[in-house]
Amino acid sequence: MIEIDVYMMLARIQTTDYNLFNQLTIYFKRLVNYTLQEDCVNYFHQIGETLGYYLHGFTKYPSLVAFQLPYLNRLVANTIKICNKYPVILQFWLLPECNSSFGNLFQSLPNNSRLPLYQIIKNFLIVDSPLDQTENVIELISLTKMSPCLDEWFSQNKDLAYLLSNKCSTIIVQMENLDPRFHNVTEFAKYFKMFCLIVENCTPTIAHSYYKIFETQILNVVLSNKTGHNQFVFSVLQTIADITTTNKTILRVFDNEYFTNWIRFIFEERENLRNLFILLNALFSKHEDILVKLVTTKSKPEDEAYSIEELRLKAMKICKGGTTAISSFMVTTLKYQFKDMEMYSINTSAPIIKGYLQVLPEYFQNTPAMNEALNTISSILMLKLNFLDSKYTQIVIEFLFESYFNLRLLLEDYMLYRFDSIELKNHQIYQDCFKQYHKSSEPQLNDDNTINNTLKDINYLMLEQNLQLFETFTIQLYVYCKLKHIAHNWAMEIPDYSVLLLR
Q: What is the DSSP string of 334-381?
């Protein structure tokens, strides 16, 4: 049993004296632990008043000293746990009765100051305290699901949303002014992460209002400045990819018209395309519902299916390792990825797929780094989509196969005669012929400006690496298509590995 009257007197003592402060913390640590561990249902009203007085004494941040801050941070976290156990305590603070000294104190405060937990957390955020408040913010605001009065209070008081928005705006302005103190977007990501977690963990009303503030004041600003703020947009994508519970936020971001325009811009200017592919792969891997929304269609394909036998022959011809490399990847896929395999219909008119299919035919002109990213995003698309159900994707893949075989011959010829000046002149003729082939091949693609008609001079060092990367691309394509073909035809679980490898 604890003596509430004694704690009520101690709660009114405010001191910055180190020794006295330490003595007081011993008592209040005991109170907090007792409340969390024991059944205090008969006197949680008194505990709520005591903690309200005690916490209120810490709401004036400038009067605090450094040694008090770590203790205060732990006290806030533990008090939130107490409120989770006894949500009615929040009602004592936000809707205090007037027939007590505690009630008179809290009634005299402005409405946005009646929640001492919130005031302390906000003060930490205002001064950019090194004591991270993300968990405290999320744990507190998640209590809105349990406490109607807290839900109503947060609906009326949005200063936390504006505080986080102002923090992000300040960072953006620093970047625009090339402030030498500002070298990355880590702080921006930290505050956006708070926005995400708030949206995911509170009631729908608060989630909507908080997201609208972020969208109008931050997201639309960085998306409309396409060239200057790319790193902030990538920070947004990276953050929602890192958090596995950001479904509400992701859907809102990808529904944003400014975001759709930004995606188109990135595909057009190409400079940041590699980063986009890497982040989209991370997003699609963790959030399949986003992949379905963005790149699939419910309509069934009307085009004739690509021959799996023809694909097998192409794969065998391309892969220098023969069946060994293919079999190895198939075994790995069966062990670790088959449960994640889907057969969604690909939507070739979706902005991301349309942009992807414009970049893919330029595979052998890309840098190897870009193609590594292309292989990464291609892997998740092939895993989840019926990649070759569309006539358009079939044309692109056929063009890549033909380009591969021609370029491999050019590379072999170059490696054989690269030290022979006479033969190199003949080789240049072959290269010009390939350029002409590249320009005239597949009119359907060229009509859509998918293929860049001005093929650059071939960089043979990059070409050798790209040919190797295309082998990986082809193995992925064949194995995923093969397994889906078997699963579809057999309409059953994939059988024993050895059965598949012999087919």
A: HHHTGGG---EEE-TTSHHHHHHHHHGGGGGGS-HHHHHHHHHHHHHH
Instruction: Give the pair of three-digit tokens for residue 392.
Output: 């358009």
pLDDT, position 114: 81
Residue 360 near residue 374, CB atoms below 8 Å: yes
Task: Tell me the pLDDT tens digit for each residue of 24-60.
Answer: 999 999 999 999 998 888 888 888 889 988 998 898 8
In which element (H, E) is residue 297 found?
Answer: strand 296-297
Lowest mean pLDDT among 53-67, 370-384, 408-422: 408-422
Q: Side by side, which strands form the sheet with 344-346?
A: 296-297, 344-346, 385-386
Residue 306: φ, ψ to 5°: -75, 135
**What is the dihedral sign for C-alpha 71, 73, 74, 76?**
positive
**Distinct helix (H) and strand (E) counts, the chain:** 27, 3
Q: Do residues 52 and 106 make contact, with C-beta atoms less than 8 angstroms apart?
A: yes
Q: Is 208 left (phi over 0), alpha (psi -120 to 50) or beta?
A: alpha
Alpha-carbon span 389 to 368, nearest angstrom: 28
Evaluate if pTM is beyond 0.90: no
Give me 433's structure tokens. Answer: 């012929």
Return the top range by mean pLDDT from 61-65, 284-288, 377-381.
377-381
Residue type, 145: K
Q: 342: which 2 tokens?
A: 């889907």
Mean pLDDT of the chain: 84
Q: How far does Cα 237 stand from its chain's mean position?
A: 4
Q: Are strands 296-297 and 344-346 parallel, antiparallel or unpaired?
A: antiparallel
Report helix, strand or coil for 34: helix
86: alpha, beta or left? (left if phi > 0; alpha if psi -120 to 50): beta
**Helix 368-384 × helix 288-295 angle, to 10°:** 90
Distance between CA atoms of residues 153 and 111, nearest Å: 8
Domain spans in the chain, listed from the N-terminal domain onward: 1-144, 157-268, 308-493
Torsion angles phi and psi, residue 65, rounded to 5: -120, 165
CA–CA separation, 489 and 343 (whole Å): 13
Of the candidates 494, 470, 471, the one whose C-alpha atom is nearest the C-alpha of residue 341 is: 494
- CA dist 484 to 239, 312, 492, Å? 32, 14, 11
DSSP-derived letter for residue 389 is: S
**What one-letter code names the amino acid at 170?**
T
CA distance to 257, 291, 295, per residue, from 284 (Å): 20, 5, 10
